[in-house]
Amino acid sequence: MNLLTKNTWQQHLGYAVKIGIGSALAILLAELLGLNYAASAGIITLLTISTTKVQTWRLCVQRVGTFLVTVLLAFLIQPIHHLEWISYGVILVLLAFGLSARNLLPTLSVNAVVLTHLIAGNALTSTAIFNEFCLLVIGLVIAIVVNHFQHYESQKKYLDYCRQTSEKKFKVIFEKLAVYLANSEIQNHVWDDIINLEKELHHYTQVAFAYQQNRLPVTDDFYLDYFEMRTQQCNVLHNLHYEIKKLRLIKRDSAVIVTFLNEIATHFGELSQPIHQLQMVDQLVQKMEETPLPQTKEEFLRKARLYHILMDLEEFLIFKKRFLQKHHPEKVAAYEAELAIEE
């Protein structure tokens, strides 16, 4: 079983265990307190446990707020409570409309159950409302407590695996781009590789976001920033498609970019410093500026295309530099100091 499959099964199993244990505990506590409709506490816990701690807390706050609104609507529609099905329908229409307008529809199911308890048999009394509120509090508290337990190490291990996988694929893509440019006859499907990598990075970013949300209040945005950086770099490669397709027909210009692409592939990795490569871009641009002005339209387009590719590759490297400056500032400073001494 590979790490991807193992992590997926662990997530599914962990989520199922939380729901099972949490719902059972909520029902047990409600029964011990002698509350009516004790099973509702378990349902509230089931519907409140989310994939991240932040989402669970947010849903808890929303449930409390919408519960108060539901009780208020029940009081306002009280004159027609002798027609239970009509009052239930009217309140539900108003409630669903308001929740939909405020993007709070996930809270509707619990409030619908609360309504059935309050309206059935004209049970809209302070005792009934207190009973429903206690069920809500029990369900929410148990959901928060149960969802507090997160297997951070396995999540981190999986994210490290995703990071290493994406770096290997980026390196292969740069090697393929270099071959694609060097030989105009080769079709190595490198652009399909870029599209597939972009899809994978989208998934990795979602996993990293969930990890970050589960780590709060501890600030741990390394993985989220990393995969967002890689996604931005992937977008840059997409933008290069048309220009590189044209450039591969001009051997003299393509040779310059091929050398640079191989340089990036050779030093590709999380901690590899892009400073030297950025200096290479500056040197190449400076050489272009020193060449005579283009005399024909074809020469102008050729030079503009080469300049555009270099600027895109510079942007690719700048994304990496910003990431390192945020998460490894001491390594960037040490490398820059080393370069300064060499100069």
From TrEMBL:
Pfam families: ArAE_1 (PF06081), ArAE_1_C (PF11728). Its main location: membrane. InterPro entries: ArAE_1 (IPR010343), ArAE_1_C (IPR021062), ArAE_1_C_sf (IPR038323), UPF0421 (IPR052984). The chain crosses the membrane at residues 20-47, 59-79, 85-101, 130-149. Keywords: Cell membrane, Membrane, Transmembrane, Transmembrane helix. It comes from the Bacteria. One of its GO terms (cellular component) is plasma membrane. It is a multi-pass membrane protein. Residues 159-321 form the Putative aromatic acid exporter C-terminal domain. It is found in: Cell membrane. This is Putative aromatic acid exporter C-terminal domain-containing protein. It comes from Enterococcus dispar ATCC 51266.
